[in-house]
Amino acid sequence: GDHPVDRLMRHADDEFDVLTGDAMNGHRSPADVYRAQRGRHPPPGFDAWLAFAKKHNALIHERFFDRVYDDLRPFWGVKPAKIRGFAAGFGDALVVRNGTVTIRSDGVDRPWLGPWAEMVQEVAEHLPDLEMAMNVLDESRVIVPWETIAGAVEKEIAGRKSPEQLFESLASYRTEYDLTWPDEMSRGVLSSSAQFVTAGKYWDLAKPGCHPASLARNDPFPNYSGAYPPPTQFLTHLFNDYVSNWTRAKDPCSQPHLRSRHGTFIEPLSISTTTDLVPIFGGSKLSMNNDILLPAAMYYHDVSPGHVYSSSGTEPPWAKKSTKMIWRGVASGGRNRHDTWPHFHRHGFVSMVNATAAHLVETGSSTPAQTFRQLSPTAHLRIQPLREGRLGQWLPAFSDVAFTGLECFPQEPGFGCSYTDPYFALATPLPFAEMLTAKYLPDLDGNSYSARYLEFLRSGSLPIKATLYNEWHDGRLVAWKHFVPMDNTFIDIYSIMEYFIGYGEKPPHDRAARKIATEGKEWAAKVLRKEDMVLYTFRLLLEYARLCDDGREELAYVGDQ
C-alpha cells in the first residue's frame, strides 16, 4: 500500500517544483518578476543587488524573498520619520554611514552584533546611510495586535499598482535615497518612543497577535491548570500521524495546547515585548511576532573555526553512518522550575524517547504525569511498539538522547538539578562531529531557534525538525524534501522512526531517509551559503531603506527601462 510518508514526499517534490519553477526558466528579467509579484518597482540599488547575486552564482528566485515582504509590509502603515526615530533611539543598533558599519550598544557584551555587522559590511558600500535596531535577546520583541497589523497591511496593498500603471509616468520616480538620521543631540529624547513590557504570562502577551477567529483567541479550555487536555482536536496539520502542513505545525495561534508544552510560553528567560509597531531586526520569531527577520548571527558566525556547531566537513557517507537517533543538549527553553518543568519542550522530548522512562510508564511503576505527557495509545497513534507496550524495549535499539546539563531555576551548583535529577541521567557532551555520524538528528528549540539546524542540513544526516520559530530561510526549504518535520508535541517521533528504521514485520525505509538527507544537503549547499545570507540581508536593507525615506512612494529602480 501507499504509505502516508510516500505521499508526503511526492507532494513535497511537487511543491519544490513550483517553488523553483520561475527561477529556472528565466523568461522575464528579475526586475519584471519583482514588479509583477510586488506591485511596485524594485528599490534603488536593485541593479547592485543583482550584480552581487550574479557574482556569487546565487540562485535567485523571487519567492525566496517573500519573508522580507511579509515582515516589512505593515511598516507602509508607519510614517518614515517614526521608523527612523525609533531606530536612532534604540540601545543596540547597527549604523551604516558612508558605506561603513559600526555597532552602537549599551556597553554590555553583545556577541551577536559582531557577526551581523560583518554581514552588513559585505554590501554596505551599496547602501544609503541607515540605522537598524537589533534584538540581542533570544526572545522576540514585537507583538502588535492582529487588528492593527491588518489595518497597516491594507495601506501597503492600496499602494500596489499593475505593471501598466507602474510604467505610466516613469519620470515622476526618484532613483536616489534621501535619508537623514537624527544627530547625537536629539537621540536622548528618542529612546523612549516605545513601551516594553517585561513581566506577565508570555501566552497572554502573544495571543492578541493571532487572528480573531483563531483557536488561541477562542480557547475551549481558558482556565486550565496543569497539563493541557490532549491536543488531538488541534492537530489538524497532521496527516495519518505525520506533519503535512509545516506552516500550521509551527503556529501557536492554531494550537492553544502549546502554551503548556513549550518553555517560551511558560516562562521565557527574558520578556521585553512591545505592542507598538516598531522595526526591530532579529534572527528568529514566532508566527505572531512582528520582528523583522535576518539570518541569525550564529549561522553567519558558524563558518568560523572552533565554533561549537561547525562541522569539519568530513562526515561519513550515509551508508557508514549509524542507524541511531542522537541528540545532546542542555535543559534550556526558559526558566524551568520544580512545578513547571514537565511542561518544557526539551524535557518532554528527552523523556518521550528515553527507554527507562518509557518502560516505567508501560509497567505502571511511574506517574506518567511527571515524565511522559501522553503515552496512551490513542486512536491516531497506530504505532505498533506503543500498542504492544514494547516502547521501552524498542527505543534502546536506536535512541541515544540525553541532557548534558539540567538548567535549574533558581540555579543550583553543578550540572544537576534536585527536582529533575530523579528523571534524567546526564550524559557527557558529544563532540559535534560525533553527532553527525548518526543518520537521524532531531532538532529542537532552545530558548528560541536552534543554531545547529544549518549544520544538520549540511551534514548528510536526516534532520527531524520541531520548532515554533520562523527564520529567514523558511521559504527556501520544503518539508519532506529537505528535512522531516516533527510536531511540537513530538507525538509523531515514534511513527517517524518506525517508518524509517522499521519494526517487527514493518520494513525500514532507509532509501527514503537517504533521499531527504541528500537532497537537503545538496540544496543547502546551493541556497543557504554565507553569500545567500548576505544577499537576503542586502535585499532586506534596500527595502528597509526605502521605507525609511519620506518620499518612499516615489522611490524606485527604473534603470532597466
Automatic annotation (TrEMBL):
InterPro entries: CAP10, O-Glucosyltr/Glycosyltrsf_90. Residues 256-554 form the Glycosyl transferase CAP10 domain. It comes from the Eukaryota. PANTHER family: CAPSULE ASSOCIATED PROTEIN (PTHR12203:SF22), KDEL LYS-ASP-GLU-LEU CONTAINING - RELATED (PTHR12203). This is Glycosyl transferase CAP10 domain-containing protein. The lineage of its organism: Eukaryota, Fungi, Dikarya, Ascomycota, Pezizomycotina.
